[in-house]
Design goal:
The structure is a single chain. Helices cover 30% and strands 31% of the residues. The protein has 344 residues and is α+β, with helices and mostly antiparallel strands. It has a six-stranded mixed beta sheet with strand order 8-2-1-12-19-18, with helices on both faces. A five-stranded antiparallel beta sheet has the order 14-15-16-13-17. The protein has a three-stranded antiparallel beta sheet with strand order 5-7-6. Strand 14 and strand 15 form a beta hairpin. Helix 1 packs parallel to helix 3 and helix 1 runs parallel beside helix 10. It is globular. The two termini are 13 Å apart. The site of flavin-adenine dinucleotide has 41 residues, from helix 1, strand 5, helix 4, strand 13 and strand 17.
């Protein structure tokens, strides 16, 4: 195994989990991500009023079993990687695109898990992969931030959102031709957008949320709001009233290219009207996710292309972080098995 070197593109929860399994089996792995920090769509923002999640507010199970996810979290803590990581199992949770399901809330944040995992990996952040190709020596990557090509790698695992991953494969004519079957299979997978607003109101509402809704509410979809996350009511969190507001996929698509200030104003009005307070703000932060959650999933845990190219991610199985982890586990097992059997 030691002479093998895999490149993993994407340091979201899928890429990191897969990379850790490959590394644990004795492989050499380098993970590349275009962002400054790992975690992908588990993004959080610090503010003077406390942490707020503008990506996934919770780790929803999706196709993964809650017991297995609890085991993954427990193993991370017992390995001493994230001593202060705390999690709370949640039941019948309103999730953005997948109906009610079980899941976990995490403190200090979901993305603390990504930070803990990446500590043991060879991770290159601020490496935006713009080209991917293969020659007789193996796979090579070109990154926007680097002049020289990086490689050779004997295999590549692609865990970017599908639109970005497909564009990367199509950027090189030879790669696109060689991976035509994989591209065909990947073509039908779609993701929907989400505008998300983090908000600390100047005059927070007095009323507690309706009993039973917990810290995440799913307003009626006609409101334009998919989720209202009461971050200060998150189990164990506390602090000033602060909210993560997620617009519905339809509202986000209709406003996708609108001016950010106009979107901020409209989302503030929708949120204030839902919560029953004024739009006066101490803090706002707006984020546009072009590829937020899966619309149409692949329906199997990963794709295997030609010559050691693999594809994984949440949208292989569903729309949640649990799906991303289940995909990571399956692809890493398949990569190791293909290597053992010499079928790459
Ligand atoms: C607004 C919102 C709400 C959500 N709500 C929930 C929820 O309630 N429950 C739940 O479980 N999940 C939720 N999710 C989904 C959850 O965040 C994802 O399922 C999970 O984080 C996906 O992990 P991933 O590793 O598959 O992909 P990602 O996290 O997207 O990771 C892909 C990585 O690839 C990197 N990348 C992309 N292109 C390149 C390139 N060219 N070069 C290098 N790096 C690149 C990106 O920077 C990113 O870090 C939500 C997501 C959003 C955005």
């Amino acid at each position: 195994m030691s002479n093998r070197h895999w490149a993993v593109i994407g340091a979201g929860i899928c890429g990191l989990h897969a990379a850790r399994q490959l590394q644990a089996a004795g492989a050499r792995v380098t993970v590349f991500d275009k962002a400054r920090r790992p975690g992908g769509r588990l993004a959080v923002r610090r503010s003077d009023w406390g942490l707020m999640a503008h990506g996934a507010p919770v780790l929803s199970t999706g196709s993964a079993s809650p017991d297995w996810l609890a085991e993954v979290l427990g193993a991370t803590r017992s390995a001493g990687l994230a001593k202060d990581l705390a999690w709370e199992p949640l039941h019948a949770l309103p999730a953005l695109a997948a109906g009610d399901q079980d899941g976990f809330s995490m403190l200090p944040s979901l993305n603390a898990l990504a930070a803990a995992w990446s500590g043991t990996l060879d991770l290159r952040c601020e490496h935006t992969v713009t080209r991917l190709w293969r020659d007789v020596s193996g796979w090579w990557l070109l990154c926007r931030e680097q002049e020289a090509a990086i490689g050779p790698f004997h295999g590549v695992l692609l865990t970017t959102p599908p639109v970005q991953g497909r564009a990367l494969l199509q950027a090189d004519a030879g790669t696109a031709a060689e991976q035509a079957d994989l591209l065909d299979d990947w073509q039908g997978v779609t993701q929907v957008p989400c505008w998300s607003l983090l908000w600390v109101p100047a005059s927070p509402p007095d009323a507690a949320p309706t009993a039973g809704t917990g810290f995440i509410e799913r307003p009626a979809s006609a409101s334009g709001l998919a989720l209202v996350v009461h971050e200060h009511r998150r189990p164990g969190a506390g602090g000033s009233p602060r909210y993560a507001i997620h617009a519905t996929a339809d509202w986000s698509a209709a406003h996708l290219e609108h001016d950010a200030d106009a979107v901020r104003e409209q989302l503030l009005m929708l949120a204030a009207s839902h919560l029953g307070c004024s739009t006066a703000s101490l803090f706002t932060h707006l984020h546009r996710w072009r590829y937020a959650v899966t619309g149409q999933a692949l329906g199997r845990p990963f794709l295997a292309g030609q010559h050691g190219l693999w594809v994984a991610g949440d949208s292989c199985l569903g729309a949640t972080a649990g799906d991303a982890l289940a995909s990571a586990r399956a692809v890493a097992e398949a990569m190791l098995m293909a290597h053992d059997h010499g079928t790459e």
